[in-house]
Write a structure and sequence with these properties.
The protein is α/β, with parallel strands linked by helices and 279 residues long. It is 33% helix and 19% strand. The strands form 3 sheets. The chain has a 7-stranded parallel sheet, with helices on one face.
Length: 279
């Protein structure tokens, strides 16, 4: 699939000035089992990352907790100095072991982790940084004030939120511009539909995590399988094409540790799903 190119999905300007192809890459799966530690094949991960710009992918989403640290460090080794590439990262979840995640929204933690990400990624400023989760144990206003501080100090260029409601976005907007929102969303789970509608009305990029429902939209049990079979496609490709068609602010970031699978995902940029009934 060497002729695939993410640019054919169209582009979106994050924060109004940072243009990226709408079909990106999620770097969670560059890590080991349980998203903990290094991958089994670090050299293969580096090869995959270096292949992304060749197929038009210029938007990568990662986080300090992926590994932890592993994903950011591999991205730097493979792609620094990121010519034409936007690397978004996050903080606000900490790890105690494989498949273990807990929120930590203390302002001092968020600020320290963003500064660590600067060093790990080897940049002077992070293009896009997300509050990975709102910590229910820390006043929300304090967490948003920390994001404002990161913007004011030039540590980050644009800020986003993850797994939030419309009311939480509006509250954050009292302190800083929300450039992107990263919520769970796919053709089978549209509980964040109101958030997507709000993002579309306010030119906020919407980054759907679990765009393939952790593989649930990829196999023969997928509700998209019949359409995919009729059109000689993979259900996962149809699911991504549906997301791209759903809204011009949609920025899917499917992840994989396999180059062939990544190219298969990027090929969804060329798929016409206008006749798909996914209601």
């Amino acid at each position: 699939m060497s002729n695939v190119n993410a640019s054919r999905a169209g582009t979106f300007r994050i924060g109004g000035d940072l243009e990226v192809a709408r079909l990106g890459y999620g770097a969670l799966h560059l890590t080991g089992p349980g998203n903990w530690g290094p991958p089994a094949d670090p050299a293969g991960a580096i090869k995959l990352l270096r292949h992304l710009p060749r197929i038009g992918v210029n938007f990568i989403d990662t986080a300090d907790s992926y590994g932890p640290d592993v994903s950011e460090e591999l991205i730097r080794e493979a792609l620094h100095p990121y010519d034409g590439m936007v690397v978004a990262t996050k903080a606000g979840l900490v790890r105690d072991g494989p498949d273990m995640w807990r929120p930590d929204g203390r302002p001092e933690h968020l600020i320290a982790q963003a500064k660590r990400s600067l060093l790990k990624l080897g940049v002077d400023r992070i293009d896009l940084w997300h509050l990975h989760r709102i910590d229910p144990q820390v006043p929300t206003g304090e967490q948003f004030a920390a994001v404002r501080q990161l913007l004011d100090e030039g540590i980050i260029r644009h800020a986003g939120l993850s797994q939030v409601s419309v009311d939480q976005i509006k509250a954050a907007q009292q302190l800083f511009p929300v450039s992107t929102v990263q919520n769970l969303y796919n053709v089978a789970n549209r509980q964040s539909e109101d958030v997507l509608v709000y993002c579309e009305a306010n030119a906020i990029g919407f980054i759907p995590w679990h765009p393939l429902a952790s593989g649930g939209l990829s196999g023969t049990q997928s509700p998209l399988d019949n359409f995919a079979r009729r059109n000689s496609l993979k259900p996962s490709q149809v699911a991504l094409a549906w997301l791209l068609k759903r809204s011009p602010v949609m920025l899917p970031i499917p992840g994989s540790g396999n180059i062939a699978h990544v190219e298969e995902n990027i090929a969804s940029a060329d798929i016409d799903v206008s006749n798909l009934n996914a209601d």
